[in-house]
Specification:
The complex is a heterodimer of chains A (234) and B (225).
Chain A (H helix, E strand, L loop, with lengths): L4 H27 L13 H28 L2 H32 L8 H19 L6 H26 L14 H42 L13
Helix pairs in contact in A: 1-6, 2-3, 2-5, 2-6, 3-4, 3-5, 3-6, 4-5
Chain B lengths: L1 H21 L3 H19 L9 H26 L3 H7 L4 H30 L8 H26 L5 H28 L7 H26 L2
Helix pairs in contact in B: 1-5, 2-3, 2-5, 3-5, 3-6, 3-7, 5-6, 5-8, 6-7, 6-8, 7-8
Classes of the chains: A mainly alpha (234), B mainly alpha (225).
Chain lengths: 234, 225
């Protein structure tokens, strides 16, 4: 069976993303200079920063999907929001893990309660909760409504979390001095990371849609036959 | 305006009257909150890693869990005999319903805090003499924001089967900035001897305003279902 044009495009997209990842990884290993004080561990930063920025983008998509659901009450928007929520949790986990590896080498500790670490942790928790509560709500309308309200509040909570963690003592690097090659590497990493994040959101959305249509088909199949009054013109 | 205020007062009085007659919430939740403090006190008594200031974090655990029970119960009252349908049919603004539920929740939470706070202060040798007013102000202002999101989510989840557990899951992470900000402010006041400035409280008040406005706006959308 020949794959449909969409399937071909999707395959090409993921192959391109993989190739770009291989390219920037090679760049990182062979071309980017070693940072003087931190050594090789600093290179984790090229993954850390794009992942952090795309976490916010994904959270913003959750917010948009949630607001649109509240306004239009179309489950299509719920599928958008939940797809983006999965990706935001994945990326936030990546940010936390890369950050912890870096922190272990820079500060000698896996974890400190510094503002940005606390901020990332709370952000991660906010969206993990979004994902874990969904399966426990049976009605799909109710699930979409609770998720949408939560998606809006969680996103508005982000600046509050940021402000509150500012009150904690800080040891996170505030400004980073990069050489030209380091800057180029960082920019280059943004390309596959963006493709990865966007691709995952679309993939997850597609799965959500397929699951929804399949469920709807099953539901209509097993629907109770309507009772028609005897002799009446229903 | 006066009409709305009268409606809010009437609805709040109704909720408080139900509580006064049934005595279902405050006593039970206050005892639960004291139990939480006792359990944590046994594990973390001063000298074993906890200092006086730990009382603030421990109190937050008690307030968070106690709050969830209060929000859930004041909303469950409306689900009995479909009282909510009657309330929605009444010629009352939805905003007034939200405000009255919020007020009732706050008053019940304050009543519980009045019991549990002295217990934690005594158990953890927390010396409040430096700024008793500051402590009360920080805790009271934080509770307003917490009660706002709690009231909103209680209205959302009360019709689901898993009301209790679900509500705690939804409100705890959202309330975390309030916990972080208030404990940090108290830390600055009691540990570093700084005066509780307007700027510190302003952050908490800003939180309250955001939570209040958003909850109030969304509450109207949510109640229709």
């Amino acid at each position: 069976m020949n794959p449909s044009p969409t399937t071909t495009i999707v395959r090409l997209y993921w192959i391109a993303t993989l190739l770009l990842f291989a390219g920037v990884l090679g760049m990182l290993v062979f071309w980017t200079p070693r940072e003087a004080t931190m050594g090789d561990v600093q290179k984790i930063f090229y993954i850390h920063l794009p992942a952090a920025i795309h976490t916010f983008v994904a959270c913003f998509v959750v917010f948009i999907g949630s607001v649109m659901y509240l306004l239009q009450r179309r489950l299509w928007w719920d599928d958008v929001a939940s797809a983006a929520a999965k990706v935001s949790v994945l990326l936030a986990s990546l940010v936390l893990i890369t950050g912890m590896i870096w922190g272990r080498s820079a500060w000698g500790q896996w974890w400190t309660w510094s503002p940005r670490l606390t901020f990332s942790l709370i952000l991660w928790l906010l969206y993990v909760v979004y994902l874990v509560i969904r399966p426990s709500i049976e009605s799909s309308q109710k699930r979409a409504l609770i998720s949408a309200v939560y998606g809006v509040i969680a996103f508005l909570d982000v600046p509050l979390v940021y402000l509150s963690t500012k009150l904690l003592p800080d040891i996170h690097p505030k400004e980073i001095v990069l050489t030209a090659r380091m800057g180029t590497t960082l920019l280059a990493w943004f390309v596959p990371m963006t493709m990865f994040a966007a691709g995952l959101i679309m993939l997850s959305f597609r799965i959500n849609r397929l699951r929804r249509t399949a469920l709807e088909e099953v539901e209509t199949e097993f629907e109770e036959p309507r009772l028609v009054p005897a002799g009446g013109n229903a | 305006m006066t009409r709305t205020v009268r409606h809010i007062a009437m609805l709040t009085a109704k909720d408080l009257r139900i509580e006064a007659r049934g005595r279902q919430t405050v006593g039970l939740v206050a005892v639960l909150a004291v139990l939480i403090v006792v359990v944590l006190g046994i594990g973390l008594s001063p000298g074993r890693g906890a200092d006086g200031l730990s009382a603030t974090a421990i109190l937050w655990v008690a307030y968070l869990f106690g709050g969830v029970l209060v929000f859930e119960r004041t909303m469950a009252v409306e689900r009995h005999d479909d009282a909510l349908a009657g309330l929605l049919l009444a010629p009352v603004d939805r905003g007034a319903i939200f405000a009255s539920k919020l007020l009732a929740n706050l008053l019940l939470m304050f009543a519980i805090a009045l019991v549990v706070t002295p217990v934690a202060v005594v158990f953890f040798h927390f010396d409040l003499s430096a700024a008793p007013g500051g402590f009360a102000a920080v805790m009271l202002v934080s509770m307003v924001g917490y009660a706002a999101i709690g009231t909103l989510f209680a209205a959302l989840t009360s019709s689901t089967r898993l009301a209790g557990g679900l509500l705690a899951m939804l409100v705890f992470p959202v309330a975390l900035p309030l916990v972080v900000a208030s404990t940090r402010l108290l830390h600055a006041v009691f540990e570093q001897g700084e005066a509780l400035g307007g700027a510190g409280l302003a952050i908490l008040v800003a939180f309250d305003l955001i939570f209040l406005v958003v909850s109030w706006l969304v509450f109207e959308m949510v109640l229709e279902d």
